[in-house]
Amino acid sequence: MFKRFSPLILFFVTVLVIAVLALFGPEEQSLGSNVKIVYLHGAWVLAAEVAFAAAALVGLLALVLHRERLHQWSAALGRTGIVFWLTYLPLSLWAMEANWNGLFLAEPRFRLALTFAIVGTLMQVGLWMVSIDWVTSLANLVFFIVLRVIFSTASNVMHPPPSPIFNSGLWNIIIFFVLLNIFAWLAAYFLTRIFLSLKPKN
Question: How confident is the model at residue 22 (pLDDT cuts 50, 70, 90)?
Answer without folding.
Answer: confident
